[in-house]
Amino acid sequence: MRRAGRRSRQPPEGSLMENGVGREQGTPEAPAAESTPGSRPPRPRPRLVFHTQLAHGSPTGRIEGFTNVKELYTKIAEVFGISPTEILFCTLNTHKVDMQKLLGGQIGLEDFIFAHVRGETKEVEVTKTEDALGLTITDNGAGYAFIKRIKEGSIINRLQTVCVGDSIEAINDHTIVGCRHYEVARMLRELPRAQPFTLRLVQPKKAFDMIGQRTRSSKSPSEGRVCSGKETLRLRAQGPATLEDGPSPFEEEAARRVDDLLESYMGIRDSELASTMVEAAKESPGAAQLARDLDSVLGEFAFPQEFVAEVWAAVCHPKDEQK
């Protein structure tokens, strides 16, 4: 992940910094386990403390002790005295609405978290003159689907009030809060042509230097990812968060290809979902087995058979795609 736009971060008074992560001064170290001759004592797990701000401006807070995105939002909300439902999404190391810096399932131990909260609500009427609206949808993992990309020259591109980062709250007064990104994308695809419909959108609250921008993120090999070779905190929907090495260049490239396939087939982008599918494909002997594996853990997505075959080829035979 590129680090452009990162704000400098100083350790709070009365704390020490270990591996870029705050540790309270005076916090007792974990007692060393007795070791037998020739054995290596276990490495104590560091106390992970991350620094955070509200993207439109706030004091710096510190959070710790979360294992998934919902818990992360709850911790941020507690620091700033707001409801977790006020948070639309988070970016890493920039306060701007930059979809290439979107927080996904991994956080680098030195990353600074910026929370983008609800701003103004707006309604826009859209007439579907083509099958595709030109929207790519993602979600925050906590009930809000939002716009990650707007295709140049598309129907939505011609509507100046619609921006990347806008949360889609309702379609024709039917609330979609709590729906996953693929469900929202399917609803939009199934809307009839030539019949106007209304989108109710919530834009992120903006700081002064963000007013007027209408971002359209471009594809990036490192979109939504942290830098390779560094430890990251991996957030999981089920089970505890784990410390892992950052993705290898191969894993980053494979995840990018799968993310592109998700956008092409389903109209969504989801770097964490793409990484999960890469891990599954690497363990599968073929596309048929991958389809069964994905159906057992991600059956709600109802991935088309041809899509799964392309995912397996993109991960296991990437050179074939370039011929």
Automatic annotation (TrEMBL):
SUPFAM superfamilies: PDZ domain-like
Record InterPro entries: GH2_GIPC, GIPC1-3_GH1, GIPC1/2/3, PDZ, PDZ_sf
Superkingdom of this protein's organism: Eukaryota
Listed transmembrane segments: none
Region annotated Disordered, chain positions: 1-46
Pfam family name, one: GIPC1_GH2
The PDZ domain, residue ranges: 123-190
Record family assignment: Belongs to the GIPC family.
Protein name (Swiss-Prot/TrEMBL): GIPC3 protein
